[in-house]
Design brief:
Number of strands: 30
Shape: elongated
CATH class of the largest domain: Alpha Beta
Distance between the termini: 49 Å
Number of helices: 15
CATH architecture of the largest domain: Alpha-Beta Barrel
Structural class: alpha/beta
Length: 628
């Protein structure tokens, strides 16, 4: 870790005596001046030079909201790299904001244990018609009632314009002004804790956005040694990287300290390059947990990665970074490719029923096996690593939004297969993640959208979308939504309406399965899961199944059989096909049918008293003991 004597927190920070200290790291300038606008009159003050390229200025009687900027050697004025608030956008001056001026009501809140996490991912701008933090608050109780225990906010750090997914942020410490700014985020998280919900924040530490990015003018925040799909990589291991690392770690800690966030989702850590003796992820996790211990709360640091690398969550004494969790895309890809039949891109590696069984048994489908899509071996083995350290989904912002039209599963699958996808997710031993609106079958898409101001950048984004989907033969002006158009953004806003019979039935299925995850010991047991796909007669079956697979089964007619738990067990049988399938009989030791995804209660075709002799198309049946 950086010697604390070489780093001091950056930004406009309130001191114990009531004064404000402005501090900025600007080693690329010999002189830095602080420019302020008290009473709308411009004032300029030369800042004092400190060691290691820092400049500072202390001042009393500073009011919250005061606009300020830094003038560098080029004579131009720029917003603060560590700005806490950009009320007028990414290019305009920063504003003084005092984190400690909010009176929290969550003093008894201790967080949500990892094994209790049910994550609900949402985009603030499209979750409500208003697109603000404040507008989320009235919906929190209904999410808690559904069975969700944590909401995950897509990035809220300041980005250009008012419409953006958030991954083009350029002010890591500032909270998006169009969402309501930092005070409204504090109010949202406080309200979430009152509702019993944790809040995770998606953060981007692999690159900075292309517009309004001024950090490189102050110091070597980026490096040419590595490239990401979005441009230069963050400088985590080159010259002067100690202070860049500290900047990022301070940012991570600030979400926990200043906003009481219950965790972070680290975007695309496979695009974070660091060959230091101690990886930035391990250092960040250590600092985040130190802050969590100080607050007496549970904080989760979860990585998004496509590397299938268990080292992300292994402790340091086993060669890992010690993170609390990691996304596992293999589960999503196995479900999606199998049910939709799609084989484009990375779906080329998936689509076989036995791969879905492997995702239950081993988390990763690719564990050192050859990947045709990557044309090399991919992944390593999870072994006995706690399954609560892995987050899985059947829909999320990436897998929906990165499609040409942003279609949800509703547009790709019949209702029965959609219900099956829900069931497959909910019986996983891993942490389930729901994508906003999934629980009631939202039909509106989630296309890519942005609101850049640079005309050249706007055209480059449009051109990139054309080229990305050229092979699909879409015509841009008729089919693929224009990311810059306000209509594209508006089309993504949720209806948040389950008043129709189909929507309310879908939400009931999610609620019942989430309740089962809370209350059924076999589903709470994350250590004992056995799954296999039965695709031909004569294959061995789990101990709870009494007979061989019917001889009528064909090679392409697949049943997935999952056994959860050890002392008290549940047996799950899923029909992965569009045809009715015979079902092996279950041992009569008190095990009864507990739930069918095709129950009429959920919008399916199975009557309440209909015996479970056959599996309807895309049906999942859950068998267990009545009282357990």
């Amino acid at each position: 870790m950086t010697d604390q004597s070489t780093y001091k927190p950056q930004g406009a920070l309130l001191q114990s005596d009531g004064s404000v200290v402005w501090r900025v790291w600007a080693p690329r300038s010999k002189n830095v001046s602080l420019v302020t606008w008290p009473n709308e009159r411009r004032a300029e003050t030369e800042m004092a030079a400190e060691e290691f390229g820092f400049f500072s200025h202390r001042q009393s009687d500073v009011q919250e909201g005061l606009r300020y900027a830094y003038r560098l050697d080029d004579g131009r004025e720029y917003p603060d790299p560590a700005s806490r608030f950009q009320p007028d956008g990414v290019h305009r001056p920063s504003a003084v904001w005092f984190a400690n001026d909010y009176s929290w009501s969550d003093g008894d809140w201790r967080g949500v244990p990892r094994e209790e996490l049910i994550v609900y991912e949402l985009h603030v701008g499209t979750f409500t018609p208003e697109g603000t933090f404040a507008a989320i608050v009235p919906r929190l109780d209904e999410l808690a009632e559904l069975g969700v225990t944590a909401i995950e906010l897509m990035p809220v750090a300041q980005f250009p314009g008012e419409r953006n997914w958030g991954y083009d942020g350029v002010h890591p410490f500032a909270v998006q002004n169009s969402y309501g700014g930092p005070r409204e985020l504090q109010r949202l998280i406080d309200a979430a804790h009152r509702a019993g919900l944790a809040v995770l924040i998606d953060v981007v530490y692999n690159h900075f956005g292309p517009e309004g990015h001024y950090l490189g003018l102050f110091g070597p925040y980026e490096t040419d040694r590595y490239r990401t799909p979005w441009g230069k990589a963050v400088n985590f291991d080159g010259p002067d990287s100690d202070l860049v690392r500290r900047f990022v770690i301070d940012n991570a800690v600030s979400w926990v300290r200043d906003f009481h966030a219950d965790g972070l989702r680290l975007d695309a850590v496979h695009a974070i390059f660091d060959f230091s003796a101690r990886h930035i992820l391990a250092e960040l996790q250590s600092e985040a947990q130190t802050e969590a211990d100080r607050l007496g709360r549970t904080v989760h640091v979860i990585a998004e990665s496509d590397l299938n690398d268990v080292r992300l969550v292994l402790p340091a004494n086993r060669g890992g970074h010690g993170l609390d969790g990691a996304w596992s895309d293999d589960f999503h890809h196995a479900v999606h490719a199998l049910l939709t039949g799609e084989r484009d891109g990375y779906y080329r590696d998936f689509g076989r029923p036995e791969q879905l069984a492997k995702a239950y048994n081993d988390v990763f489908v690719y564990v050192g096996r050859y990947s045709p899509f990557r044309r090399r071996r991919h992944g390593n083995r999870v072994g006995k690593t706690d399954r609560t350290r892995f987050v899985v989904s059947v829909q999320n912002h990436d897998q929906v939004g990165n499609r040409a039209l942003g279609e949800r599963l509703n547009a790709l699958l019949p209702p029965a297969a959609q219900r099956l996808a829900c069931g497959l997710l909910m019986v996983s031993p891993c942490v389930p993640l729901l994508w906003m609106g999934e629980e009631y079958g939202e039909t509106r898409p989630f296309p890519f959208f942005s609101s850049f101001g640079d005309p050249d950048l706007i055209e480059a984004v449009r051109r990139g979308r054309r080229e990305e989907f050229a092979a699909l033969e879409f015509r841009w002006d008729e089919e693929i939504p224009d990311p810059q158009s306000p209509d594209t953004f508006e089309s993504a806003k949720l209806r948040w309406d389950w008043s129709s019979p189909a929507a309310s039935a879908r939400r009931r299925l999610y609620a019942d399965l989430l309740k089962a995850r809370r209350e059924r010991p076999a589903l709470r047991d994350r250590r004992h899961t056995t799954a296999q796909c039965v695709a031909a007669a004569g294959m061995a079956v789990p101990r709870a199944i009494q007979a061989d697979v019917p001889s009528a089964a064909k090679q392409n007619d697949a049943l997935l059989i999952i056994e959860r738990g050890i002392e008290t067990t549940l047996v799950v049988i899923a029909n992965l096909t569009a045809a009715t399938q015979s079902i092996p009989p279950i041992k009569r030791d008190g095990r009864v049918l507990l739930l069918s995804t095709e129950s009429k209660r959920y919008g399916g075709q199975r009557n309440a008293n209909q015996p479970p002799d056959d599996l309807l198309p895309y049906e999942m049946l859950i068998f267990g003991s009545k009282g357990q």
